[in-house]
Amino acid sequence: MKKVQRALISVSDKTGIVEFARALVEMGVEILSTGGTRRKLEEAGVPVRAVESYTGFPEIMDHRVVTLHPRVHGGLLAVRDNDEHMAEAQELGIEMIDMVVVNLYPFQQTVADPEVTIEEAIENIDIGGPTMVRSAAKNHKYVAIVCKVDFYDDIIAEMQANDGCLSLATRQKLALEAFAHTGQYDAAIVDYLSRQYGNPDSDFPVYFAPWYEKLGTDLRYGENPHQRAALYARIGGVEPGLARAEKLHGERELSFNNYLDVAAALEAARDFDDPTAIVIKHLNPCGAASAPTLRQALEDAWSGDPISSFGGIFGFNRIVDAETAEIIGNKEFLREVIEPRYRAESGDEESTIISAFPECVVAPGYEPAALELLKQHKNLRVLRLHEFWHPDREVDLDMKRIAGGLVVQTPDVESVLPDELKVVTEKQPTPEQIESLLFADRIAKHVKSNAIVLVQGTRLVGCGAGQMSRIDSCLIAARKAGKRAEGSVLASDAMFPAPDGLEAAAATGAVAIIQPGGSRADDEVIAAANKAGVVMVFSGMRHFLH
User: What is the DSSP string of 47-68?
Assistant: First the structure.
């Protein structure tokens, strides 16, 4: 244990600092402080010694140079067990500082303002603060570094219980937090300056320095039981996102695979404006529908493929009401409504529909009565994402790891609009077909490439995902849809490079097709569409998902 006898306090965020400093003084700790922090403590009646009176050197250059002084850093970095260090300190009048309480200039908050100037940003780059933090953290065997308001209560409690002392374990933990804090702070500066001083013709910074922190304990395992896994949240990201979603119910923690599937459900659900339900299995939609009510959307989506939905993820883009919650995971509803509807519509009388069990539900919120209904399912994890449509999510960068690095891209948040469609066939689409084609195109965006989806109205009825050949995806989508393929509309996430792909698409029973176009064989593909008597429109927008 190490007794704290002298603390240097200099904070930008002054939340709780008066109470914290007063508690230190009551335990006999001498307080050194600077500038605004010193004035706030003095106004509150907390005895304070000015840093400049200790160093014998005034604050200069508009407070740019205050604590950058040998008497400060000698008091922080001296090895107390080193006789030479201590003799040197005594000769130079350097007093030991046992605790540093510092939080940094609000650089990230400053540059988050789109109107900020480069001069304002530069002035909010803290120099003295990070230097003190790192000095104290380096010498944590003797010095405690406190860089977050969240730590105040625990530190005071430990000191009060131990005659003003802090354990080495606590100082080690505080040092780790301190280095993480300055590391993330520097990463934010690098990111900002890379955008200002890097290549002005690029959307991407010269140095990309995202910063993450581990949340909670390790996950149960990774994609497979022999792999280990953990959850990290990005610090300073543009949206809190799924990593910081609130779990309202569920005894079991989410697994590695759960998080990936919930992320897929979230991205698909928030791509639609009308009440929409999404059912995800292994990163692909096996059910999706928009409808006037959320309950109807769920029934339409679930009955699209109730075979695959077992153990799936349900995503909603509306606050879940009791009427919708009543049928989530409801075995009777599955047997009495979903299964008969699926078999009648698809013609599939043989496939086994195992159960109504969903793994997770994610939504922007839940009515109280709905949440109580969902809590009746012991193994169901219920997640709420408060900022479901975060305004800045469209500018966040999408990262994918490769060996030795990352590939980074802007997110695929765009969707084609009705007036951007180009009808390329002799046959013209009806207004109803246009609505269905646009829905199908948005769903195809969330299906692993090569993606083919079949849609009736605004309801997914067949999905062919992740195949090496677009023809194979057509065959799978048609088999999934069964009788529902007849008269459907079809979306392809990318162009048909040859007429045989279009012929396979038309053979599904679809009467209208949306695809990006852009193939060298477009003229031949259009001719094949005209020969098959189907409508075809070009969206001009590809949606590969790897």
Answer: --EEHHHHHT---BTTTTBSS-
Instruction: For residues 187 and 191, give the distance between their C-alpha atoms in angstroms, rounded to a whole number.
Output: 6
Phi and psi at 29, nearest 5°, equal -85, 135
Residue type, 326: E
Q: Please write the tens of the pLDDT for every residue from 117-175.
A: 999 999 989 888 899 999 999 999 999 999 999 999 999 999 999 999 999 999 999 99
- Would the pLDDT of 365 be above 80? yes
> Could you tell me the CATH superfamily of domain 418-538?
AICAR transformylase, duplication domain (3.40.140.20)
Q: Which of 282, 375, 390, 427 is catalytic?
A: 282
- Residue 522 near residue 496 (C-beta atoms within 8 A): no
Total-model pTM = 0.86
Domain ranges in the chain with CATH number 3.40.140.20: 243-384, 418-538
Q: What are phi and psi of 311, to 5 degrees?
A: 70, 20
Catalytic annotation on 3?
Answer: no
- Whole-number pLDDT of residue 191: 84
Tokens (6 digits) for 309:
């939905």
Residue 140 is among the residues annotated as catalytic for this protein = no
pLDDT (tens digit per residue) in 501-518: 999 999 999 999 999 999
What CATH fold (topology level) applies to the domain 243-384? Cytidine Deaminase; domain 2 (3.40.140)
Q: In what order do the strands lie in the sheet with 535-538?
A: 246-249, 381-384, 358-363, 312-316, 276-281, 284-290, 459-464, 452-456, 489-492, 512-515, 535-538, 422-423
Structure tokens at 234: 């990005």
How many of the other CB atoms lie within 10 Å of CB of 223? Answer: 11
The active-site residue, picked from 14, 138, 173, 427, is: 138
Residue 235, H or E segment: strand 231-235
